[in-house]
Amino acid sequence: QVQLVESGGGLVQAGGSLRLSCVASGRTTGHHATGWFRQAPGKEREFVAAITYSGSTAVYADSVEGRFTVSRDSAKNTVYLQMNDLRPEDTAVYFCNAGPGRTELRGTGAYWGQGTQVTVSS
User: In angstroms, rounded to a whole number, what is the distance separating the alpha carbons of residues 101 and 65?
Assistant: First the structure.
């Protein structure tokens, strides 16, 4: 079993920045990619960004391309999501996802974190 814990969310004004962290613990065996997803009130969960285990490849949703950057520190079992130029439409609960079962980098693995709230005021 793998546990994923997100942190770093909060309230920020439009144009501001936040950095989210996702720390993996438990049986972190297996070289799995990690993804970030978000869910706004009344909407379905959507893909935001993902990075391979090696960190060599990252992909982004069109809505965040050029503003968000995903990275990882394998020594710390941590994946980051740097979010710049935040907009009110970025307001959502952000979830970390990893583990086996992912068939493509934009897909989902077996494990989810509890999520961290990001609120962007206009």
Answer: 25
Cβ-based neighbours of 65, under 8 Å, separated by 6 or more: none
- Can you say whether residue 54 is alpha, beta or left, with left for phi > 0 and alpha for psi between -120 and 50 degrees? alpha
| pLDDT in the model for residue 40 | 97
% the chain with pLDDT above 70? 98
Beta bridge partners of 112: 97
Residues 54, 115: Cα–Cα separation, whole Å: 24
pLDDT of residue 101: 87
- If you search the block for the tokens 């920045």, which residue do you land on? 17
Determine the pLDDT at residue 29: 61
3-class SS string, 1-48: CEEEEEECCEEEECCCCEEEEEEEEECCCCCCCEEEEEECCCCCCEEE
What would the mean pLDDT of 40-69 be, rounded to a whole number?
Answer: 97
The tokens of 55 are what?
Answer: 């960190």
Is the distance from CB of 89 to CB of 83 less than 8 angstroms?
no
